[in-house]
Every structure is written in C-alpha cells, then in structure tokens.
C-alpha cells in the first residue's frame, strides 16, 4: 500500500471511529488488523491508537509514556496526511473530525495548524472549543485560553468541569494568579460547577508555582474532599521550585505514607536535598528507594528525522553519529559559555566536584537530541524534541542559548507542557 492509500485508510478509520464510538472495541480490532497487514507503518498506527484511546477517555495501559513520547513526533505528519484526505473527501467541515485534528496538531506541537482547523469551522461545538482550550493550556498560552473561555460564555455556552480544568491549568502555566483565583471562585458561584479534586490540584499548582505556598497549604486544609496524590504532588513540585526543603520534606513524607512505591517522590525529595547541599539526606533517600526495589525511569529524548525516531539517553554513545554529536555539543557549549551561559549544576544529584558536575549535566539527553537536530535538519527548520520526563533547569537554559546562537526555533515537549525556544527566550517565560 503506498503512502497516499495508507493515509486515506487512516482517514477512513478516523471516520469510523467518530461515528461508532459505541463500537470502539470492534474499531480497535480493525486498527490492529491494519497493523498486522501493514507492519511497516506499525509505529504510526500505534500512535494513532494511542490518540484514539486518549480521545475515548482512557489511556491505553499497554503503551507507556516513553513509547508514546516517540509517537507524538510522528503525529504532525500523521495529522497532515489525514488532514489532506479529509479535505479531499469533503469532511473538513465535520466538527467531530476537526476536533480530532485540533487535538492531534496541538499534541504534535503545531498549535498554529490546530488554530487553522478550528477557525475553518463554521459552527464549533463545545467539544471543539474544549479541544482548543486544552491546546492553549498544553502550550502555556494562558491569555488566549482566557479569551476563548470569555467568548464561549458570551455566546451562551455553559462551561463544564472539563473546561474549568483546562482553564485553571492554562492560568497556572502562565502565572495568571489573579485570573485563576477568579475562575476558581466563579465556577461554583456563577456556573454551578462544584470544584473537583482536579480543580484543587490545578489551584495548588497555580498558587505554589507563584510562590504562594502558605496560601496553597490553606487551600488544601479547606478542601471538602480528601486531597489526593495529585494535590500533594503539586505542592511538592512547588516546594522544589521555591527551594522550601522543610515543607517539601513534610509533603513528601505524607505522599510516601499513601504511596511508598512511587519512585518520583523519592527523586523529588532527593533532588531537593541535593539542591540544598544536604548530601547525606539525599543519599539516605536514594538508598531507601533502592532498598525498596524502586527504579527511576531513565530520562529519554526523542527526535524524528527522515521517518525515523531517534532516541537519546544521558551521555548516549549508542547512536551511529555519536562522535559527531558529542564533538558538536562540546563546541556549542564553549560558544554558549562565551555568551554568558553558566551550567546550573544544582540539577546534578551527586556530591561530586564542580568540573565533573558540569560534564555530567552537559550530556543530558535533551542536549544530545538538539545537537543531532542541528546536524541533520536544514537551516531554518525548527527542531522538535519530545522528553519523557520534565526538562531540567539546565537544559531549559541551554536550549535558550542554543536557539539564540544557532538562530533556530527549538520546541521541547516534556511530561508537563510545551516549551518554544526562539532568540534566547522560551514561550513559558521561565514559568514552569
Ligand atoms: Zn537536563
Ligand atoms: Zn520553557
């Protein structure tokens, strides 16, 4: 089957899915049978299945996040292929199909294409608007999210709890504290939507990120429902950002009581101790994690080039172009230093001397993936990276310098959000 036919069959799959949600299982079997017949496209189809399961409301537990990360890179091409077929087949005004495209484009980093699809819709419904709002939240465009919400309300649409989750999330990722507080207040008083635990975790995140840790704690205490791990996790993340080791320790202990098997909590706690120079405590937490048989999932970065997804881990030497990548990275870091880049070694966890620390942090997977992109992508093309974990502060700062020195747009999707780096600045405004 050539690419054109294959794309067309994908668009048919999409159509079937949209019109027979009740037959989702049957549909999945159909996708699987296509996978078997066209095994060379399996990766993209798996991605497609992942997208569908997300749209369906559940996440396919058989596909872990690290695998999904690499699929997102292929999403743009898939979305483009499907988009073309939909236009040709005359289904471009179908709201359900357009909504699937809005989501696919936003998830693949193409917020502009996602907007275009939305603006072409004559009568966008609530779900299409929710998808656009979710895209804004994902990319940290808080003001645009607020605008679209206001427009919806003006048109008489009744916002539901899902919309408020995305809206609060968008406010949180853009530092819109006043707006976030206002929407949290009016969601129940004006729109009759009682805050759920998700809304509380967005608010704790919003307050915590902006340094209002005390207010975040008060909000948790006032909750009429039991705070879950997401709520405490948001507070713990805020403690890390603002280096509040004392409160962070208490929150982590509470989290570990309810879930002693979550390696992320040990990592955050250990990172906080390391950042505060409390090496003995950091080692103790690491040892405890090891004793309990828990392992941190390794940080990986993915970049797509010529229909292939390239995966990098820290200090990766397995790539065929490894020697070139490391040489170019060293050269680039030297240029960055001359421009004022200072490695943020507090993100290295071990108690080693400064030189070794810098060497370790310079080989993070994000940096290797960016340099690979610089080597293979034609000048002017943006470099799109997907990370399975949250980007560290040093790689964030390095990506800003790289975008400036190399005059390249760099887009990084980490486990939390998108970062668009241009001319030495990030779209998150360093608020992440
Ligand atoms: Zn890093
Ligand atoms: Zn950023």
Report on the architecture of this protein.
The protein has 432 residues and is of the alpha+beta class. Helix content is 63%, strand content 6%. The chain has 20 helices and six strands. A hairpin with a 4-residue loop joins strand 4 (410-413) and strand 5. It is globular. The site of one zinc ion has 5 residues, from loops. It holds the Pfam family Eplus_motif.
> Major sheet, described briefly?
6 strands, mixed
Strand percent estimate: 5-15%
Task: Summarize the helix and strand pattern as letters.
Answer: HHHHHHHHHHHHHHHHEEHHHEHEEE
| Contiguous helical run count | 20
Summarize this entry quickly.
The chain is of the alpha+beta class.
Task: Name the descriptors.
6-stranded mixed sheet, disordered N terminus, 63% helix, alpha+beta, binds zinc ion, 432 residues
Helices, strands, pairings?
Blueprint: H1 3-19, H2 24-37, H3 42-56, H4 65-88, H5 95-107, H6 111-120, H7 126-138, H8 142-154, H9 161-174, H10 177-189, H11 197-209, H12 213-221, H13 229-241, H14 245-258, H15 263-275, H16 279-291, E1 301-305, E2 308-312, H17 322-338, H18 354-361, H19 365-376, E3 383-387, H20 393-405, E4 410-413, E5 418-422, E6 425-426
Parallel strand pairs: 3-4
Antiparallel strand pairs: 1-2, 1-3, 4-5, 5-6
Helix pairs in contact: 1-4, 2-3, 3-4, 4-5, 5-6, 5-7, 6-7, 7-8, 7-9, 8-9, 9-10, 9-11, 10-11, 11-12, 11-13, 12-13, 13-14, 13-15, 14-15, 15-16, 17-19, 17-20
The structure holds zinc ion (2 copies).
